[in-house]
Amino acid sequence: MLGKHACFEIQFAIDQLSRVVTAHFGLHANRFADPNFSGVDDEIAKQCAVVDSGDEVVDPMGLSITKLGEEVKELEKEVKELEKTYKEKLALLSLKECMTDTLQLKGDEAGISLL
Predict the structure, then answer these.
(1) Distance between CA 111 and CA 115 in Å, rounded?
(2) How many CB atoms lie within 10 A of CB 50?
(3) Is 33 contained in some domain?
(4) pLDDT tens digits for 49-100?
(5) Looking at the domain assignment, is residue 115 inside a domain?
(6) Does some domain include residue 13?
(7) Domain limits at 97?
């Protein structure tokens, strides 16, 4: 406080301290808490080691994207088949309702159910 009252510029020191605290936090908080990302650090380390060694890098993300594209196509086919089955069952359900009405009205005279 004495430095502030003596008109010393201290903002640069506060800014630097803020950077140091942020860097320290970033250094110790670099572990992912989400279990879905638990292996990301290991995968990054492996890829960095491969790059540093000069070996050919195989992109697992590219392979997984291709695989996901194939799975999406398969799922789209399944959806189309399910939609077709749904339409068929809906038609059968409508037919069942018609048949139920037919059986209820069988033998009655036309218009008797309106009374």
Answers:
(1) 7
(2) 13
(3) no
(4) 766 666 555 566 666 777 888 888 999 999 999 998 888 887 777 766 666 6
(5) no
(6) no
(7) 78-105
